[in-house]
Fold each of these.
Amino acid sequence: MGGFKSVDWGRLRNLYIDDKQLENCKVVSSREKILEVLPKNGICAELGVEHGIFSNKILDINKPKKLVLVDIMLKKHLQVEHDVVEPIKGDSVEVMNQFEDNYFDWIYIDTDHTEEQTNKELQVCKNKIKHDGYIGLHDYIRVYDNNYKFGVIESVNNFLIENQDFQIVYLSLEPHMFNTIVLRRNK
């Protein structure tokens, strides 16, 4: 039970989202399946890129007209080369604040997974997506160890509690349980 000692169960009880925000949620088997249902030929961003493996899947499946790739440690050996790609090295929140509101069809967040950073990213991204746009977040999971705690669940649930105009539209239920959740404004 080592890692569970740090769980604040009382706080978690206050993070229940409204059932109405789950009414249109579809469960799929992978984040690649989520890409299949996100808008094609649009303007999208991936925050947290690493080597660009998922970026290439976005290019193959979604065929975006523009894909903004943002990472604090954008690798020189990023394995993504395409004329629609705009790689930007920097903090995701600072970079996203440089774009006009209502610009992106969808944004995919896979950065440091801390609650603090994810909160900031959600706050900026809700304004950067179009009114019918999507925000996807990877690693909607409960991970604790002695040194690190993911905060994506807390961030997303708090965001949904505070932003009742958003709902969950997709959740990947993957065998390794590193799930992706996708949010969208109510229509």
Amino acid sequence: MARVIAILRALAEAEEETSLTAIAQQVGLARSTTHRLLNLLMSEGLVERGRWHASYRIGVEYMRLASLVVKKRDWQQIAEPFLKGLAETVNETSFLSVYLPAQRKIMLTQVHHGKNPLRFQIDQNVPIPIMWGAAGRAVLAFLPDETIAAILQEGEPSPATGAPMKRTVLKAELESIRKQGYALTQGQLLAGAVGIGAPVFGPGGHVVGALCIRFPESRHNQASVNEIAKKLVRQAHRLNAALGNDETRDSGA
């Protein structure tokens, strides 16, 4: 059983179809044993032949089962280890934001803190405006055009400063977020706070929330902020892949 699982894991983690020799080397088995186990998996539809000679890839039945598992698990449960890993990697407060379509707001639902004692409090399970802050804008940028237009029409002021929302500026920023794959804001929800947010896409491919980081602006310079953003985007890509969305958006990471 362990050998079968090792082969399935190797095929699932491969970026493309792979050869018998490569699979055998990766899992540490003889070619003959690997070939026998692959044939067994092919008979169940879990593995199939690739497009080129002697290559293999994940089968349709494997993808069907994986899709069923994802649908039966709440995507926020799936996000938990990615969120925890992010906090440990950047050593800053990381949190998950969920999009609330009926209210056109977001809500912070899960939080993991880094080891730095100086941190901002995260108010969980409280709906907040989607136009302000990195978490909200990371979601807003990937909503349908008509939804974005309706949200912009509401024009809520900044919760931190009371500053009005400038539509032309926000539209340009949303386009930038779509290109780079994350939102970066400063002092929009909390004075002195920097926020970075990357979108999370559910099993259907629609944006459902954002993976985010928040820290005091005094703690990092521009270079370190850019590095944190890259790590955030990488983790968001891994989460999106776990949710069945393998397309990697251009993020510069």
Amino acid sequence: MVKTQEFPEESELVIGRVREVKNFGVFVALDEYPGKEGLIPVKEVAHGWVKYIRDYVREGNIVVCKVLRVSIDRGHIDLSLKAVNDHQKRERIQEWKNEQRAEKLMEIVATGMKKDLEECYTEFGYELINKFGGLYQAFEEAAIDEETLKEAGFKGKWVKPFAKVAQDNITLPLVTIRGLLSITCPGGSGVIKIRDALIKSLATDPNGRVMIHYLGAPKYRVEVTALDYKTAEDIMEEATKVAIKEINSSGGEATFKREEI
């Protein structure tokens, strides 16, 4: 995905391909800034003394670097390889892959609308990037709900085809949280009361995101799957609150404890 600005910003993590390796440093062609190249000085390749620079990096390697300095007048971009930890590298690579995929999806949108790709970027693509922080994030939001685009102020004939491509091609990431319900309800009708309480608990979410598994008296595992942790936690709280209230009003006892994942 090509960035909307011409140069990267200091401290930005950039993706690049190693073009040339010298004893004094590494020249990197920046993937998201066409025509721009950065230099990784040998001291920024790795922590400690670098005896053989090719032990760390070779031509053709895809690298994630941190931008140290940018001189727009001179066209110089200084980079650091050692300033990027493994976690940052994994996240940035995944983001880069997502944006590459978003570019392909944008091509599908453009083809369906019988427009050039750049025309679509000019009409709404760049604005989506600015609004959502990236084109892939815009596709994700549209996959969740087309109305999100409208609520963000977007309108036009492109909204529906954009949302359709998103919903047909984006598999939304889900999170799952779990907890244990401990339930006791004495008396001959205790089993029925527990069943009814659990049915009401499941009914709190008509979208079927709550599941309850019997683990053996008196324990039940409650499992909630949603698009994000906050939503999952809210659903879990409501479902367990209803179950506990129903059991307590029936003369039984119920407690809930979240499981750490």
